[in-house]
Amino acid sequence: MNRKVAVIGAGNVGASTGLYIAERALADVVLIDIVEGMPQGKALDMAQTTPLWHRGGRIEGSNDLAAVKGAGLVIMTAGFPRKPGMSRSDLLVANANIVRPAAEAVKQHAPNATVIVVTNPLDVMTWLFWKVSGLPKDRVVGMAGILDSARMRTFIAMELGVSPTDVQAMVLGGHGDSMVPLARYTTVGGITLSELVPAERVAAIAQRTRDGGAEIVKLLKTGSAYYAPAMCAVEMAEAILTDQKRLVPCSAHLDGQYGLKDLFIGVPVLLGGRGVEKIVELKLSAEESAALQKSGKDVADMIAELQA
Questions:
Q1: Assuming Cys at both sites, which of 13, 36, 40, 151 could form a disulfide with 77, CB separation 3.0 to 4.6 Å?
Q2: Assign residue 175 a region: left if phi > 0, alpha if psi is -120 to 50, beta otherwise?
Q3: Which of 54, 109, 175, 253 does the annotation list as catalytic?
Q4: 64 and 83 Cβ atoms separated by less than 8 Å
Q5: Residue 272 half-sphere exposure, CB side, CA atoms within 13 Å?
Q6: pTM exceeds 0.85
Q7: Does domain 4-142 have CATH number 3.40.190.10?
Q8: C-alpha pair distances (Å), 168 with each of 106, 151, 189, 243
Q9: Would strands 180-181 and 171-172 be described as parallel, antiparallel, or unpaired?
């Protein structure tokens, strides 16, 4: 297998991401983490499962960021997780100090790579990775809307007792408390959500979607979500590695679209072999547009805080 994916961070999200990529035989994987022995040990454990898959690529571990060399795709998952009562903005400075050296390593050793950022606060860390790495804006993208939409799809399926596969949802905005679930663009088997679920329940589902990550943090008490974030990162990785041209919500660089500029935020994009190949501008109601502007301001404020 010629393709190589470097996963920076071998914690729960990173290790799960690497495992899913290798299991799908999408690429060879290198797990990179500063903790001595951890990425090597997890990689060795994963490698010992490959005879049972009857397919899959090589999996290796390293403590050296230079191991990103030769990777066509880099997935940034390293960072401190949220703890109960902690907002995403609380993570800002600590995780910025983790993202910067990773971005420098990609700039030096893998300048032709496409990067998927998972580290929180996601939209700001995606912006920071882009700034530090100097990569073209279309080759740096954040994993936000796919996860938020997957959560909304799950909650709708629970509400209606249907398969989540038949639910399509669209969530825009920052990956945080001000995200914007769009019920008008959400369907079940092609039927508009409002025809199946009363307005008050739609509002409750939208709020649960906003609180989706915090709900899991509260239940786990000592950690945060990782299976779903990892799978969402892999969905993006597969779209890029196999040039699928997926129309999905991701954190992308805006330069005037939706009235927002010089930030990364969740919007519908065409995701393919060249990264973010197109940004799709939906027609929003005045209320939806105002909510997206507020979400954009929240992201811009955190960027300004990071630059202060």
A1: 13
A2: beta
A3: 175
A4: no
A5: 9
A6: yes
A7: no
A8: 34, 11, 8, 21
A9: antiparallel
Contacts of 59 (CB under 8 A, 6+ apart): 18, 22, 28, 29, 30, 31, 43, 46, 47, 50
Looking up tokens 């030769």 gives 70
Is 54 a residue of the active site?
no
Tens of pLDDT, residue by residue over 147-180, are 999 999 999 999 999 999 999 999 999 998 899 9
Classify residue 216 by burial, with Cβ atoms within 10 Å: 0-12, 13-18, 19+.
middle
Q: Where are the domains of the chain?
A: 4-142, 145-307
Task: Note the pLDDT tens digit of each residue in 38-83.
Answer: 999 999 999 999 888 877 779 999 999 999 999 999 999 999 876 6
User: Which residues, including other chains, have CB under 8 Å from residue 287's CB and lie 6 or more apart?
Assistant: none
145-307 is a CATH 3.30.750.80 domain? no
CA-CA distance, 244 to 239, in Å (whole number)? Answer: 5
Structure tokens at 303: 């960027």
Tokens of 279: 């940004």
